[in-house]
Amino acid sequence: MAELTTLARPYAKAVFADAQEQNSLDAWSSSLATLAAVSADASMAKVLVHPSLSSAQQARALIDVCGDKLNEAAKNLVSILAENKRLPLLPEIAALYEDLKAQMQNTVDVVVTSAFALSEDQTAKLAKALQAKLNCEVRMTSEVDESLIGGAIIRAGDLVIDGSITGKLSKLAEAMKS
């Protein structure tokens, strides 16, 4: 994983710099999301690394599948990645780009996994508390995982807060073993 990140980072930074210069952050987000989704498909992933296809053929296949969802700059990125045998990095490039965009916009994506669905009031209070703690705008999404028994797990970038019953039971069991 670290190697993929290391390889993808220069491309993500270059795309981000271009997006800032052209004032097209959202357009690049959309293009990269499309490219990441298409390139992550199992059938397309095989095409992108198929040894009998030239890099131009691989790039053309990806561009054709994406159709008119890509602008010329995104098509050029695909061609460059194909020439350098880096097309499989597209999902990682898209993720790094979104991280750079969030840092610039001082936002963070938060995923709250709870045992039960959160009410709008609970979501709003949690978002407000996280906004104060993280000192940035919070974009929250919620997931339900009944195996947590109760409580929630909050993921905000590298920060993970495990307030689930399952997590607490695991910690208790670990403490009892030592």
CATH architecture of the largest domain: Orthogonal Bundle
| Quaternary organization | single chain
Number of strands: 4
The chain-level structural class is alpha+beta
**CATH fold topology of the largest domain:** Peroxidase, domain 1
Order of helices and strands: HHHHHHEHEEEH
Strand content: 5-15%
The best one-word shape is: elongated
Strands across the major sheet, in which order? 2-1-3-4
CATH superfamily of the largest domain: N-terminal domain of the delta subunit of the F1F0-ATP synthase
Number of domains: 2
Percent range for helical residues? 55-70%
Distance between the termini: 32 Å
Structural notes for this entry:
- By secondary structure, the chain is of the alpha+beta class.
- It folds into two domains: 2-102, Peroxidase, domain 1 (Orthogonal Bundle); 106-177.
- Helices cover 63% and strands 14% of the residues.
- It has helices at 2-22, 25-40, 42-48, 55-66, 72-83, 90-105, 120-134, 165-177, and strands spanning 107-114, 137-144, 152-156, 159-162.
- The chain has a four-stranded mixed beta sheet.
- The protein is elongated, with a radius of gyration of 20 Å.
- This is ATP synthase subunit delta.
- It is a peripheral membrane protein.
- GO terms for molecular function: proton-transporting ATP synthase activity, rotational mechanism.
Brief overview:
The chain is α+β, with helices and mostly antiparallel strands.
